[in-house]
Amino acid sequence: MLNRKLEKVGVNLSLSDALPLVTVCLFLTAASLTACGGGGSGSAVSSYELTPPVGQSEPVQASSEPVPVLEPVTAPSLKTLSVFQNGTIGGEWNDTLRAVDSGNGWQRCINDGGAGCPNISWELIPDSERGQVIEIRHGSSGDMALFLIETNNPKDLSEYAGGVIKFDVRVVSGDSSITMKIECVWPCESEEQTVGPVGENGWETVQIPIDNLAIPGRLDLSQVDTGLVIWASGTRNSVFQLDNVFWEASPDYSSETEVSSGEVNGWTNPNYSGAFSPDSYSGYGLVWSDEFLGSELNEGDWSFEIGTRGDGWGNNELQYYRRNNTRVIDGLLVIEARREDYGDRQYTSSRLVTKGKQSFRYGRIDIRAAMPFGQGLWPAIWMMGSSFPSVGWPYCGEIDIMEMVGGSGRERTVVGTAHWNKGGAAAAYSPTNNAPYNGGPSNEYLLPGGESLATSFHVFSLIWTRESIKWEIDGFQYNEMTIDNSADLAPFRNEFFFIMNVAVGGNWPGAPDQSTRFPQQMLVDYIRVFQRQ
Q1: Active-site residue among 398, 472, 480, 495?
Q2: 67/65 Cα distance (integer angstroms)
Q3: Which residue, among 433, 454, 462, 286, has the nearest Cα to 371 in the 3D structure?
Q4: DSSP character for 112?
Q5: What is the phi/psi pair of residue 35, to 5°?
Q6: Catalytic member of 183, 256, 403, 472
Q7: Which sign, positive or negative, has the C-alpha torsion 434, 440, 446, 447?
Q8: CB 495 within 8 Å of CB 360
Q9: pLDDT-derived band of residue 488, with 50, 70 and 90 as boundaries?
Q10: Residue 177, φ and ψ in degrees, nearest 5
Q11: Tell me: the pLDDT tens digits for 241-294?
Q12: What span, in angstroms and rounded, lies between the C-alpha atoms of 420 and 384?
């Protein structure tokens, strides 16, 4: 807000008018000083020379009004994870340098400088300005070999989604195109990213957006076991040096570590009425729930997925998922979609998952929630197979407990669907589902009497056994799918985790239009999982 105000200030300010602005500028960070005409390296500016307007030899008498003195404003430091800096391997990784080589059957060479690898070697060498750096040498055969820094204990690096991986490169000889990737628990790995030419004339910094690596079905950030995997794209006789390798979280994450308390933009509890579900069921016991009490999201159960995943989460969605679009307030989980510029997107929202924290197989699930409304809104409460990190979608299976798309009265219709791969995990990519156009029963339900999912609470329920999945809304069953012994449906006899999100735009709802009002909110009162005793 202050930057926008300063940018509108005219050039013919008197000194007395300018003084308060200069006082503010003195304490702004380098990023904010751009608007005031300043600069710097990121530290607070300690002095500023004020030049009188042209033609005015003496400064104008300053106003007798006291000039407010502002406390220095320190930009929040970005969260980082060191991989190799200052000649040292970061503490999250095993204190070893490694390589894998096609020449020895892709066996690892560990901390031996490449003695066991016929096509790659490495060593720490001194640099006059940097200290110790890593020099990586490819052999004359041209055969593939990769250098890596990894850990034997996979890390959950979900908080770095939306951030970047940075490293410095200097090419000594050979190919100046460099390829990198990140691996998670095998066979999970990212897309390969090639950059170059780079480092031909000295050290250059490379920055790779993590969203470009974390493509759905490839890299799972919750179980990363390499800080960097890197090699010369043309390996024959190529030599390059590597330094200052680290992961950096997005500014969004760094500024939002306390986002699960407080108020959503202009929050007013709508105090909706609506349906409830029983607290217990005969023959069932409550095994897990979240009633969203207190003022903070329980991140022991939930994680945020951040960013765009590069492809709009596989659906060409328009929003950027952030942490600070979520609050726990008044006994509700509130996920808010906003029209606001962030990154390269014009909309923001949130996406929460229990992946790696809470997963279940079979039982009764009750979720009491109220939906947003308007063209382009796409709220969903759903589940993904826990095998997703290793096999990807659709092989892992998907259960949509409820979905809705807004606009044109579509807020009256709830949709419940299951998705899987035709032919099972061993077959080629062939997504299918239990929708009517695939021969299934109706997978949607139109609320009676003009009711809406966006004006009151409804209870969305899933009754899941080894033999079937049933979908209910407010105790009324509207869909059922039989689970047989085919390879197609095998995923539905394994554990699944929860996902809750509000998408904006995408292949199904289309984009918002002039009728869409923002912000829009999905309210969740509770989620409960019961299983047979």
Answers
A1: 398
A2: 6
A3: 454
A4: S
A5: -70, -20
A6: 403
A7: negative
A8: yes
A9: very high
A10: -95, 130
A11: 999 999 998 876 544 444 444 456 678 899 999 999 999 999 999 999 999 999
A12: 10
| The two structure tokens encoding residue 89 | 């391997």
Please report the pLDDT score of residue 91 as a whole number: 87
How far is residue 374's CA from residue 103's CA, in Å, rounded to a whole number? 58
Is residue 398 annotated as a catalytic residue, yes or no?
Answer: yes
**Residue 60 CB contacts under 8 Å (≥ 6 apart), including other chains:** 14, 15, 16, 52
CB 495 within 8 A of CB 385: yes
The CA distance from 76 to 74, in Å, is 6
Tokens of 20: 């308060």
**Arithmetic mean of pLDDT, 359-373:** 98
Measured at the CA of 398, the angle between CA 394 and CA 400, to 5 degrees, comes to 140
Mark whether 7 is an active-site residue: no
Dihedral Cα 460, 392, 386, 332, nearest 10 deg: -40
**Three-state SS at 239:** strand
Residues 326, 308: Cα–Cα separation, whole Å: 17
CB neighbours (10 Å) of residue 202?
9
Rounded CA-CA distance 450/456 in Å is 12
Residue 5 reports pLDDT greater than 50: no
Q: What element of type H or E holds 22?
A: helix 15-26
Q: Which of 520, 8, 479, 532 is nearest to 264 (CA)?
A: 520
Q: Which two tokens stand for residue 109?
A: 């060479």
Instruction: Name the strands in the sheet holding 178-181, side by side, starting at the edge strand that comes first in the sequence.
Output: 107-110, 98-101, 145-155, 224-232, 178-181, 193-195
% of the chain exceeding 70 in pLDDT: 82
Q: Which amino acid is at 170?
A: R
In degrees and rounded to multiples of 5, residue 304 shows phi and psi of -95, 140
Reported residue count of the chain is 533
Residue 360 has pLDDT above 90, yes or no: yes
For residue 253, what pLDDT is reported?
57
List CB contacts of 493: < 8 A, sequence separation 6 or more: 361, 466, 483
Residue 316 vs residues 82, 172, 304, 308: alpha-carbon distances, Å: 33, 41, 19, 9
**What does residue 164 show for φ and ψ, rounded to 5 degrees?**
-140, 160
What single string gives the DSSP state of each residue in 247-274?
Answer: EE--HHHHT-TTTTSS--TT-------B
Tokens of 44: 């607070």
User: Are 60 and 14 spatial neighbours (Cβ–Cβ below 8 Å)?
Assistant: yes
pLDDT grade for 440, boundaries at 50, 70 and 90: confident
What global pTM score does this model have?
0.64
Q: Given this model, what pLDDT does residue 32 score?
A: 37
Pairing of strands 345-349, 319-321: parallel
Nearest to 289, CA basis, from 527, 50, 2: 527
